Amino acid sequence: MTNMPGKQFIFMCGLMLMPIGAMASSDATSALSSISVTAHTLANWRAGAEHGYGPDQYRLGLAYATGDGVPQNLSEAAYWWRKSADNLYPQAELMMGNAYAHGWGVSRDINRAIHWWKTAARSEAADVARRAQFLLDSAA
Predict the structure, then answer these.
(1) Spatial separation of the C-alpha atoms in residues 96 and 111, rounded to whole Å
(2) At what angle do helices 90-102 and 126-139 cross, to 10 degrees?
(3) CA-to-CA distance for 6 and 133, rounded, in angstroms?
(4) How far apart, in whole angstroms, are the C-alpha atoms of residue 54 and residue 48?
(5) 6-139: in CATH 1.25.40.10
């Protein structure tokens, strides 16, 4: 089983997707470290995810990755991130790259990680594209 540190993981994901200027804000980082999913929120995400809404698929994946509101399950997290990425949600494309790079719920595969990071790097979401390019440069 791959070691995944729950709340620390979502904190890292939040930093990875947060605009650069927001990283300096202690309010932003403390808010990310104390995220807790309510049953109502989780039900809304699940409904949206099951109807193909990419952002909710991504959020549901994060919940499964951290075990926040659901039992922690990295395979289920990767399943929802993949659905979200297939719906062209840039944060999920970036996360799929990270999942393949680290073996989070999928077999570790640097070629697939690079594929997803390249996809995210072409995103119109500038913050995601910048982070994906950084990861690509680091992998080279």
Answers:
(1) 12
(2) 20
(3) 26
(4) 8
(5) yes
Helical spans, DSSP H, in the chain: 6-17, 26-33, 39-50, 54-66, 74-86, 90-102, 110-121, 126-139
Axis crossing angle, helix 74-86 with helix 54-66, rounded to the nearest 10: 160
CB atoms within 10 A of CB 53: 18
> With contact defined as beta carbons under 8 Å apart, do 54 and 88 qualify?
yes
Prediction pTM value: 0.75
Handedness of CA 8, 13, 16, 17 (dihedral sign): negative
User: What percent of the chain shows pLDDT beyond 90?
Assistant: 71
